[in-house]
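Priority: medium. Attachment 1 of 2:
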């Protein structure tokens, strides 16, 4: 059975998110868990504490998106969260392999334009950071119905690459296209979740904060069918 995690960051359309049948994965956003001191971006322990306490013995993903990746910042933030809540299961957005979102950036929606060497970071810093994580959470977000097969191929490669760390792989996915707020067609969404469920250990599913919750949304019903 595929594990499904409900990515939470507080609210859905300004109202409390209704209870779901899925475990929670708390997402901690960069602007709340980092601070700049003497011109250097550093972990913000007080901010991290709010999220690590919320996650407690569940999942916590640190969404620190600095490109190129700031490995020292990630390591520092992961260590702070671990010290605060030893039982929490930790990771960071895009862990295991460079995220699908990053692969898509700047190449007109053609992830195949990136070679495997460009898509995967095997540096000592990357491995040291992954050693502090309990699971991999590559971000896999579709940006167009014109490249679904390319997307699935890229997702398969990314998940396979994440396996090298011998940790559970929970793919972060969204029923919306990138950041434009439009829902992915039901048949495409179903294809994505069924394909990914066969090659990863779980799905971390989130939706835009300002999207009004609809219990009967096809994307939500499709997830229920999967579980």
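Attachment 2 of 2:
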């Amino acid at each position: 059975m595929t594990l499904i995690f409900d990515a939470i960051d507080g609210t859905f359309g300004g109202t409390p998110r209704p209870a779901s049948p899925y475990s929670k994965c708390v997402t901690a956003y960069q602007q709340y868990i980092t601070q700049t001191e003497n011109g250097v971006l550093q972990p913000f322990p007080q901010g991290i504490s709010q999220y690590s306490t919320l996650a407690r013995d569940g999942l916590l993903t640190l969404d620190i998106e600095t490109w190129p990746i700031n490995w020292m910042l990630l390591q520092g933030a992961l260590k702070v969260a671990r010290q605060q809540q030893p039982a929490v299961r930790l990771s960071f957005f895009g862990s295991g392999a460079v995220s699908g979102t990053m692969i898509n950036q700047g190449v007109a929606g053609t992830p195949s334009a990136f070679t495997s060497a460009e898509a995967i970071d095997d540096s000592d810093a990357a491995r040291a950071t992954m050693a502090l994580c309990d699971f991999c959470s590559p971000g896999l977000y579709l940006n167009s119905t014109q490249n679904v097969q390319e997307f699935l191929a890229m997702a398969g490669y990314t998940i396979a690459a994440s396996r090298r760390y011998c940790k559970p792989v929970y793919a972060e996915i969204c029923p919306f296209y990138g950041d434009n707020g439009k829902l992915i067609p039901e048949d495409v969404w179903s294809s994505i979740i069924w394909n990914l469920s066969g090659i990863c250990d779980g799905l971390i599913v989130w939706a835009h904060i300002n999207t009004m919750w609809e219990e009967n949304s096809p994307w939500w019903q499709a997830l229920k069918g999967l579980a």
